[in-house]
Design brief:
60% helix; Serine Threonine Protein Phosphatase 5, Tetratricopeptide repeat; single chain; binds zinc ion; flat; two-stranded antiparallel ribbon; mainly alpha
């Protein structure tokens, strides 16, 4: 996050920085497909050498084609009602496994996990009571979001993760996740209020479990 004030540029960083450290900002949405990002950069006569672009640039054609094909199949599951059938959920999870296998060189940069259809899948898993599977998938998506600098989507995914742990009544994990969420609320939004703005009910539900969100 940055603002320009007269001759100064004020930046808020997500991790501590030392003098002379390089500060990086996103020019594009990192969740966009590699091809879309390349097209954007080419039109600006620019070549991106970030870790994500480098990794995807080095990816083999076979792997990229399989990714495109799997993502297309997964799009079919973007319809929420379609996923009410357990067999469809099972098939969608299988596709996710294929996608995860493609990000072996560095799973933390596997941005296809941030796709809308995967978010819908996590919602369906939650609604079907598959809290453990849902939490597992959310953890992976969050780790990607935070690695590629998409902290705000990562923040909302973590709220969903907290919802899963609430269902599983895992107080220890809940406290741990809430501490991270609070840290990120301050980092990304500058205030803890972001938590109740995004999910006021969660604050109430946590308090019912004896966990205070605001001291
Ligand atoms: Zn890049």
């Amino acid at each position: 996050m940055w603002i320009v004030y007269e001759n100064y540029m004020v930046m808020r960083t997500t991790k501590p920085v030392k003098e002379r450290d390089e500060l990086l900002v996103n020019y594009v949405n990192s969740t966009q497909d590699f091809e879309e990002r390349v097209e954007f950069f080419e039109s600006h006569e620019f070549e991106c050498a970030c870790t994500l672009c480098t990794l995807e640039h080095e990816e083999s054609t076979t792997s990229r084609n399989l990714r495109t094909k799997t993502m297309q199949e997964l799009q079919l599951f973007s319809d929420h009602d379609y996923l009410t059938y357990p067999a469809k959920v099972k098939k969608a999870l299988k596709l996710v496994k294929t996608l995860q296998g493609l990000g072996k060189s560095d799973p933390a940069y596997n941005v296809c996990l941030l796709h809308k259809s995967i978010r819908i899948l996590t919602v369906c898993l939650y609604e079907n009571g598959n809290y453990g599977k849902c939490a597992d998938l959310l953890e992976k998506c969050i780790s990607v979001a935070e690695t590629v600098g998409e902290g705000v989507p990562g923040f909302t995914l973590r709220i969903n993760l907290i919802r899963c742990w609430m269902e599983m009544k895992n107080i220890l994990e809940l406290k741990k996740q809430l501490d991270i969420l609070k840290k990120h609320a301050l980092c990304w939004f500058g205030s803890l209020d972001a938590i109740s703005i995004l999910d006021e009910d969660m604050v109430v539900d946590l308090e019912e479990l004896g966990i205070k969100v605001f001291d």
